[in-house]
Amino acid sequence: MIHCDGLVKIYKAADLEVFALQGLDLQVESGELMAIIGNSGSGKSTLLNMLGGLDRPTAGSLLIDGKDMLKMSERDLVRYKRESVGFVWQNNARNLIPYLTALENVELPILLSGRRKRMRALELLDAVGLLHRAQNKLHQLSGGEQQRVAIAIALANHPRLLLADEPTGSVDSRMADQILDLFRELNRTLGITIVIVTHDPQLARKVDRVVSIRDGKISSEMLRKKSYAEELMELELGSEQAAV
Ligand code: ADP
Ligand code: MG
Which ligand sits closest to the CA of 17? Predict the structure, then answer.
């Protein structure tokens, strides 16, 4: 789905140049659940922004479904970002409106109208396990629940790729686990490709593949022998057999 080859990103601030990505190679397969870990300042957010079309690389190649992002027109880039990608941030204040209900917040970005919009919003709230909180104002929800609303919003227009930048950065570890479980479930049930950026190695252990980044380059890669989806499937088959 995504193929980065020698990706370079240089930020120019006044007369200073910051080499945020320095020849990064990475492939993301369609349908995978992966994490990118690395210290603060290593280039994680920069990479995620490139993958989501929020910013363009300075050099190298970034192919998305075979299309070169460096050569894509502004219009195609906007379309890619709007139609194919969902974003979740650590702090979702810019996407959420505190005095609206959870349902109203989720309805906002949905490109449908009337009853279909309402139905889609309820379906999304159900997908993130928040149907029972639909009529609560956003400020009445816990941090973890607000994060679920943000995930529902990110899924609103059926993206193929979900990018999450430190999505558990401001919740406690139990909540972080639950959010990760939700990502796993969405990956499995919707088949959506998910890339999570985190500096929490504990969290990263629970995805199918972990790539670590250092000074704007991939420094190591760890692959689980079995994906979580396969493991869960075996567990479920096991318990069914036990029931028989
Ligand atoms: P991470 O998300 O891993 O903490 P970032 O991708 O945010 O790292 O940053 C990588 C490097 O690029 C850092 O040195 C950071 O200061 C710099 N950087 C990030 N964004 C900008 C920007 N818009 N302008 C200038 N420098 C930036
Ligand atoms: Mg960051």
Answer: 1
